[in-house]
Amino acid sequence: MGARKRVVSSETSDAQNLKTGEKSTKSANSREDEEFKLAPPKSSQIFAIFAIFAIPYSSLFFVHYKIEEELKRLILINALLSLAGFFVTLFMIPVASRFVLRRNLFGYDINKKGTAQGSIKVPESLGIVVGIVFLVLAILFQHFNFTADSNWLVEYNAALASICFMILLGFVDDVLDIPWRVKLLLPSFTALPLLMAYAGHTTIVIPKPLIRYVGLEVLDLGWIYKLYMGMLAVFCTNSINIHAGINGLEVGQTIVIACAILIHNVMQIGASTDPEYKQAHAFSIYLVQPLLATSLALLSYNCETLLIFFAPQGLNFLLSLPQLSGYVHCPRHRLPRFDPQTRLLTGTNDGTLVNLSLRLLGRMSEKSLCIFLLAFQYNYY
């Protein structure tokens, strides 16, 4: 990367050096742009993934359930905005990739070490593109849905504030490399706007297998409910980060979870007659549809070896506990071992679901392993 030369001899020499520095910087940037070739998005694969979700979702939404016209109109407007966000994200990712590479925000694919692909610079901090587009979509949707006296406006803005803080945290982590012990706690602070604005019920539904032991179907937690929600926010954010290590797995989890949430919300809206209950699930749809669209755009650049919830997450968390608690040595990267000759991954003794799958099923390619793990999560839902 070119750097500007600064020589303090005279104004003329300074101006000449400044021009020379600008030229060298531009030429260096142009060379980097020529060297950096982002693989084209996998449009056909993304369309197939979307069809798997869209068919049951559309069937429930348009055919199986009778949803009020006004509510249906708002959900469709949100879906159209999300579709626009998909194409904007698809366009912005290559643009942002060049900028982060110029600022040396890149890494190398550890699972390709020893091959030509292992020496390619992989741009980091591209989640900022997805986050910004998502926030813009969510803010624009307020024009169509919320008024000054809307019941859900405070919660909606609080959710956007929490998401904004979380995006900032992710970008800061990429730049400053925050230690894990700090990273585990920071999501609890980012969830504060949402927790402080929450004024709803404080009850939880007891899972059916535990009802005979608890003696209750619904338990009122009182003020502990907000503490529980804060801990849940910490778990949800870090569970995605921990169950990772291969290309496409993290964003793939997000897509699987988002699809499950959307289908669940439509089923609850269609089966309920309580207007407030329907609005609560519609509130979730308004936030998750843009998340799904922008995540699909990111996956299109990341669904193979390219440049760039809770059974699987819970199982991975349990497998990770001995290393996370310090009883067993925990390396910085708990990734499987890559063989450059066979180009296959081999499981290590580190306690992650990725390594456990490889130890049980044998050596696999990165793509096959990612598909298996996402299929496992999809089948659970």
From TrEMBL:
One of its GO terms (molecular function) is UDP-N-acetylglucosamine-dolichyl-phosphate N-acetylglucosaminephosphotransferase activity. It comes from the Eukaryota. It holds the Pfam family Glycos_transf_4. The chain crosses the membrane at residues 46-63, 75-100, 120-141, 153-172, 184-206, 227-246, 252-271, 283-301. Its cofactor is Mg(2+). Its main location: endoplasmic reticulum. Pathway: Protein modification; protein glycosylation. Its EC number is 2.7.8.15. GO terms for biological process: dolichol-linked oligosaccharide biosynthetic process. Residues 20-33 have a biased composition (Basic and acidic residues). It is a multi-pass membrane protein. The keyword Membrane applies. It is found in: Endoplasmic reticulum membrane. It catalyses: a di-trans,poly-cis-dolichyl phosphate + UDP-N-acetyl-alpha-D-glucosamine = an N-acetyl-alpha-D-glucosaminyl-diphospho-di-trans,poly-cis-dolichol + UMP. Residues 1-33 are annotated as: Disordered. Residues 9-19 have a biased composition (Polar residues). The keyword Heme does not apply. GO terms for cellular component: endoplasmic reticulum membrane. Keywords: Endoplasmic reticulum, Glycosyltransferase, Magnesium, Membrane, Metal-binding, Transferase, Transmembrane, Transmembrane helix. It is an enzyme of class 2 (transferase). UDP-N-acetylglucosamine--dolichyl-phosphate N-acetylglucosaminephosphotransferase that operates in the biosynthetic pathway of dolichol-linked oligosaccharides, the glycan precursors employed in protein asparagine (N)-glycosylation. The assembly of dolichol-linked oligosaccharides begins on the cytosolic side of the endoplasmic reticulum membrane and finishes in its lumen. The sequential addition of sugars to dolichol pyrophosphate produces dolichol-linked oligosaccharides containing fourteen sugars, including two GlcNAcs, nine mannoses and three glucoses. Belongs to the glycosyltransferase 4 family. This is UDP-N-acetylglucosamine--dolichyl-phosphate N-acetylglucosaminephosphotransferase. It comes from Dillenia turbinata. The lineage of its organism: Eukaryota, Viridiplantae, Streptophyta, Embryophyta, Tracheophyta.
